[in-house]
Structure of Prephenate dehydratase:
Amino acid sequence: MKAGYLGPKATFTDLAVRAMFPETESIPYRTIPGCMDAVLNEEIDFAVVPIENALEGSVNITLDYLVHEVDLPICGEITAPISQHLMVHPEHAEEWQDTEIIYSHSHAIAQCHKFLHQDLRGIPSENMTSTAAAAQFVKENPEMKAAAIANELAAEEYGLVIVKRNIHDFQYNHTRFAVISKKPVKLDRTKALGFKTTVMATLPSDRAGALHQVLSAFAWRKLNLTKIESRPMKTGLGNYFFIIDIDMEADDILIPGAVAELEALGCGVKILGSYPYYQIGRKTRDKASNAH
């Protein structure tokens, strides 16, 4: 089995793959769409791509590409803790406060806004394709007084010195990653925290109360929704699709019944996946609940 992830080595996605699939050969790709295209072209068996961060919200490129560009089901979800550190080339470790530019992924920069505003105010930042790509760039350009925001593995991988640890704004910083594949991926269901089903729905045009009717189809069936989010359809202003997460595995009655009701209302409906979800560091829902 071959797994693709947003590279280069030592991204947070790489960490999630190593934790979840330690025996699997992993291949880095430069972009998230590149990962999903590789699955579609059968270069790899599955891809692990970021889908949501606790501080910055959804990774829109992932959602939009899944809906608009590729027909690939979500077959698993991994939640991993995220710790952001400031790192520099060893030649600049002593004078790191003289940093002239900061590189990282846009989400990582946003997650560290308070630290950057207080400790490195006025220092420009530049977006990179990933946190690890930022670390690699700083390593390869020792003549620059540059810093990267990335994880500890990136510092080790690219020989950088961490000068400030845990610079993210809030302690609870986690990212959800989706496992995308054309074929079933072998996952240990006994270690899952639970199961969910993700549905994409479009509303009928010019009908008052359409969203209320959509939610009612789930509510009277007592289907718990853990997330509902709108995204533009890219067909004109005011046209949206909705991503809905249902807190249960697809069954033969309740979810098909809800889908049929939505279609009868004139909605477009597509199930993006029904799958187990995991959190690195936690075993099962029952064990996690008993720990509180």
Q: What stands out?
A: The mean pLDDT is 90. The longest strand covers residues 268-279. The chain has two domains: 1-79+172-277, 83-162. Residues 254-264 form the longest helix (11 residues).
